[in-house]
Structures are given as structure tokens and as C-alpha cells.
Amino acid sequence: MAESSAVLPRVVLVTGASTFLGGYLVARLAANPQIERVLAVDSRVPRKDLLRRMGRAEFLRLDIRRPTIAKALVSYEVDTVVHAATSIADTAPHSAAIKEFNVVGAMQVCAACQRTPSVKRLVLRSTGMVYGSSAHDPSHFSEETRARREPKRGYGRDLLDVEGYVRGLGRRRPDIDITIVRPQAMLGPRITTRMGSYLSAPVVPTVIGYQPRLQFLHEEDALAAMEHVTLAGKPGTFNLSGEGVVTLSQAIRRVGHVELPVPSGLLAPIAGVFQDLRSAKLRSSQTEFLTYGRVLDTTRMRTELGFVPRYTTMETLDDFVKRSGVTPVIGTDVWRALEQRVVSAAHQLQ
After folding, report:
1. CATH code of the domain made up of 11-189+215-241+295-310
2. How far is CA 7 from CA 120, 176, 231, in A?
């Protein structure tokens, strides 16, 4: 892999411009006068308020699964590509269509970069989900630690494959700096994530007998980290997370909601009972995460990448509670109604 040239990018193309992470990253880069041109790419038009924030950035309505992405790289002589389209994982339940978008989209982006001589830097927004979650996990995952039980499906599996394509590009084009970032679960007052939805439910189901250890990354730190790696051009793979660890029970109490311990097989069905109360739709990979947790070693982030998050894990959680509109109190009448629905759902599953 190439050594970092530490040269600021001239023309930056960011995929996933309609998402929170991609769109607000475009806005930050467009505000930097040292960058000559910023291109925002997505198949969907961003919200009007987000488009206004992008300022001088140019929006290109392109589907990254199509060869047109290669034409854009060549036409604008792009030197830095930030593949942030995977941030769709923040809100959407995984599906075959999402898998196609993640995997085929990444293949097209990598192929386009390989064929474009001007491209010298690629940044991939991956995820901490590539480590999976199991009872055999180490206390902390470093960037070199392989998952004890690799994800077989979902976003974790998708991004493992995508990371493979990106590393393959690095071998074929050793002159391109490859940077992969793996953020932990993100929380914040503006971003909508499945973890935020899960904690926002007044009654939060958990797995009986387990106390998963968690970390959080504040939305502002996620954006700052993406901007940092884009400008720094530091090649390598980096875990991203706020300092400190919190257990799931501590997080629920901090939010001011009620924990409801249930058998592991009932976690997803019971969470579905609270769907209209903003609880997340849980899938198998999420159930494993909420059973065993996941903690990342961020030494490399601080020492090699030179990035230090502003918010700790606990401060991220507190800011989420303070500014996202989460109601920390549940009324007696609401509790009785929810209890009846839980009992009814449990009887139906027997």
C-alpha cells in the first residue's frame, strides 16, 4: 500500500450524498477553500436543507452501480474518492436490494478508480459490524483481529466483502492510498440510527442473563473523522469510537427508560411489539450485538491517524438524550398497555 503523500486533495467525489454522513461531509469539504472542487454523488436528490448546506459542491445524480460513475471520475479528473454510500446502513433494514447496492456499488466504484489515472486516494466508510458479535470475542477488537464468528449476512457481511474489493484495488493500483474506517454505533441528535431507535423505546427489551458492553461514536465525531481521513490521506484501517465503555443496562437507565429482560429467542419479536414507539426492527446480527456487545481498540485511531473524538461514549449518550427529543418518563397507563401487548405477543409465539 502506498505511503501517504500528505497532499490535500484537489477534486473530491463523495458517494451517498443524500445520507447524513455523506451529505454533511460534502458540506464540510465544500467549506474548505483549499479544495478546488467537491462532487456530491447519489441516485437520490438530497433534502433541500442539506443541498443548501453543500454550498459550492456540485450534485451529480448517478447510480454507483452503473458505469456512469467511471465517466464522472474521468471527466472531472477526480483525485480523491470517499465511498460513504454505505451509510445507508444507519436507517434501512437489510435486504437483497441493499446487499446488491452495497456490493455491486462498491465493485463499480473500485473498477472506476482502477481505470482512472487521476485517482490517488480512496476512503471507505466501513463499520464495526465486520467484527461480528459472539460469546468468544476478545475484550477489545484491534484492526488486525479477525471475527471469531464472521457475519454470515446483513451489513457486516456486505462490508467484509466491500473491504475485500477495496484492498484488491490497493494491490492492483499501489499508487492509490486506501483508508478504511470502522465506526462504532453512532448516536446524535440529528442522525437516525437503529441503535438510537432501539434506545428511544420507553420499554427496551434485553436478553436475560447478558450484560453486553457497548461503545458509541457521536455523529459530529463521525463527520470530523471522515473529514480528517479525507484531508490527511493516511492509508490504513482504523477503528472509530468514543472513549469508554457502557453496558446496555447502564445505557437504558441513562436514557431513563425501562429495561425488559426476555429470552434471546424473543428479543426480536418483543421489540416488534414496540415498533410504533420507535423501537428498531431487529435482525439476527443486531440480536447478537445486543447479547454479546462489541468493544473496539482505538489506539491506532489516536496514535497513527492522529484523531481524538470530542465526545466520550457516555457524553455521546448524554447528548443524544439531551438534544434528540427522547422522553425519559413513561406513564402508568402507557406501561399497562405495553405490558398487555407483550403478554399477548408471547402467548401467540407459544
Report:
1. 3.40.50.720
2. 10, 13, 8
